[in-house]
């Protein structure tokens, strides 16, 4: 009967340690997800920066071409413009149109990168929250596991102490009994010797 509670405690400790192990594994997974989210934010930030540089460059080119286009437009609007001027104006107008399209695309890329960054930062915040929760749970489980192990060790030490005390008590009782029996035998021998003398 005495072995049953000890066996039950052993199973409880094992199952508890398994749950603690699961929490520690969950913490590692959350930390990995957090690292991935941080990497994603850094990646999209670089993409956004690239899109921003491209947009600035295209916008600068658009302004320059529009400036040239206005000058040629004035030249081409005279009563008898030179064919070369008209040709240059048409070329510049086509280039301006192409650049405006490129600028629109660059703006779309930049806005898409901004949206992606916003989503990635939200995902990062969620990953940070989950990682912190996992860290807390794992720390709690570690502390409880350590407490459980300490309680188990204390219980084992108590049982061993009680066993030693019981053994010492039995040895003492056996010694007292042996002493009493020896005294009784001595008294008996003395009585018999006295009787023999008489």
Task: Write up what this structure looks like.
By secondary structure, this protein is mainly α. It has one domain: Orthogonal Bundle (Helix Hairpins), CATH 1.10.287.1700. Helices cover 95% and strands 0% of the residues. It has two helices and no strands. Helix 1 packs antiparallel against helix 2. The longest helix is centred in the C-terminal third of the chain and has 115 residues. The protein is rod-shaped and about 175 Å long.
Secondary structure class reads: mainly alpha
Query: How many domain units?
Result: 1
CATH class: Mainly Alpha
Largest sheet: none
The sequence of SSEs as H and E is HH
DSSP strand count:
0
CATH topology: Helix Hairpins
Shape: rod-shaped
Helical content (DSSP H or I, runs of 4+): over 70%
Q: How many separate helices?
A: 2
**CATH architecture field:** Orthogonal Bundle
Q: Whole-number radius of gyration?
A: 46 Å
Model regions low in confidence, pLDDT < 50 over at least 5 residues: 1-7
Q: How far is the first residue's CA from the last residue's CA? A: 60 Å
Mean pLDDT: 80
Assess the beta-strand content as a share of residues. Answer: under 5%
Describe how the helices and strands are arranged:
Layout: H1 3-76, H2 83-197
Helix pairs in contact: 1-2
Short précis:
This protein has helices at residues 3-76, 83-197.
Main attributes?
2 helices, mainly alpha, disordered N terminus, 198 residues, 95% helix, Helix Hairpins
């Amino acid at each position: 009967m005495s072995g049953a509670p000890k066996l039950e405690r052993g199973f409880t400790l094992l199952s508890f340690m398994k749950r603690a192990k699961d929490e520690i594994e969950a913490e590692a997974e959350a930390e990995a997800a957090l690292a991935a989210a941080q990497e994603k934010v850094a990646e999209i930030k670089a993409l956004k920066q690239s899109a921003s540089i491209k947009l600035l460059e295209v916008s600068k080119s658009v302004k320059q071409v529009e400036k040239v286009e206005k000058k040629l437009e004035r030249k081409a609007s005279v009563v008898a413009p030179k064919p070369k001027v008209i040709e240059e104006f048409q070329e510049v107008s086509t280039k301006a149109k192409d650049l405006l399209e490129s600028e629109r695309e660059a703006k779309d890329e930049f806005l898409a990168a901004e949206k992606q960054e916003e989503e990635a930062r939200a995902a990062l915040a969620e990953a940070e929250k989950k990682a912190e929760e996992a860290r807390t749970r794992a720390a709690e489980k570690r502390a409880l596991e350590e407490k459980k192990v300490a309680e188990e060790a204390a219980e084992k030490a108590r049982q061993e102490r009680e066993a030693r005390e019981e053994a010492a008590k039995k040895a003492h009782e056996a010694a007292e009994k042996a002493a009493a029996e020896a005294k009784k035998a001595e008294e008996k021998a003395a009585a018999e010797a006295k009787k023999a003398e008489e």
